[in-house]
Amino acid sequence: MEEHAIYTKAESVRNVLRYISLFKDTIIVIHIDEDIIESHLFSSHIRDIAYLHQAGLKVVIVPGAKNKIDAMLSQAGLSWKTDSNIRIADDDAMPLIKMAAFDVSNKVMTQLAKEKLTAVIGNWVQARSKGVIGGVDYHTAGEIDKIDTNALTSILNDGFIPIFPCIGWNINGKPFNISSQALAAELAVRLSANKLFFLSSSTPLEAAFWKTELSYTSDGFIPALNVDELKAFIKKNGKELSKNQKLNSQLQLALYACSNTVSRAHIVDGLEDGALLYEIYSDLGSGTMIYKSDYGQLRHMKAEDIPLVLSLMRPFVKQGILLPRTEQMLSAGLADYIVYELDGGIKACAALHTYETKPRQAEISAVAVDQEYSHMGIGPKLVEHLIEEAKADGIAEVFILTTQTSDWFEKLGFSLSSVDTLPEERRAIWTPERGSKVYRKTI
User: Fold this and answer.
1) Which of 173, 219, 321, 372 has an alpha carbon within 20 to 30 A of 2's alpha carbon?
2) CATH class, 297-442 region
3) What pLDDT score was predicted for residue 113?
4) Is 3-294 assigned to CATH 3.40.1160.10?
């Protein structure tokens, strides 16, 4: 088996173990789209939710009920309309709306019971009438007023899974129909959830269909955006997003949640089996994640990173792209190395070695990016960061030695140079057998 394949399999296992530890005892709110509840994958997703619960995550579920409500109102011959994705129906429709919402919640609870999990459906949401806005009477539509978070915290701590129908009651006990997606986002904010999920029939953001310069995976999907990038994305793609109300709503609610107390929001393709587990227990996931600022970061290498960095380098050493390095070598040059960390995992590394020549020079070396992340622009970020470090240190030129990546460095502005231009100390360890080419950049 190839070295990289072994490394990839080992990293997959490490990722799962790392994320199990990272997310244990955290709260996640999952909105399940009505199309997913009606799909053949619904039972599979519920089984995955059971695995998450067994792994120590505290799960809150908000099922969508639009299709069920539509069907029951149509069967009864009652009409309704929508305005800004909000259902407007007369008061005589409310009993059926409530019945449909609770029927869907009971379906979720029954499926969880098959997985030997105890779920509870409750009236923890206080709502108020949406009222009349711009001359439009919203009748049975409501807005969230209060959520009994104290009761919910106790329920979650006792190991139960709360299920929220898309209904809220005012202080006089009158029910209102509220948006299930908005309810999921508000729950996540008020519970300070670690994650908000939209398990949806909408596919994650595919770069080819949108105006964006964001990095994307080898499959063409945008894996993650921070809140500032999402604001810019929404502004740039507002016209196209208006044609997809469900996705537009999810993005707006994700922005709201992550601009408040929620760490991350995820839009996940519910028509993909295992999407929830893969999104939580892998770095790139299967959907699009919106986050604050703690997803991926460049930082200097620490001593405890060395085993992970050596594992990252190993496939590139095997291919002859990198020179072999030992733990002792990395430890001795610790201050020279930077890494790209993703949720505690090391996905890329590089080093900057300074030579006290006249004028002073610096070498960028040991550039390695996990191949699964090679489409995300991490490599150029590493090089740019090291160039800025060299500039700050008063260095005018940086160079690299390469055998197989000259095209990549040329794209970054490096030009072919001569071995004779190397600092004497570095030239002494250059070998004609390896035949590395020298590329240089003035900064």
Assistant:
1) 219
2) alpha beta
3) 97
4) yes
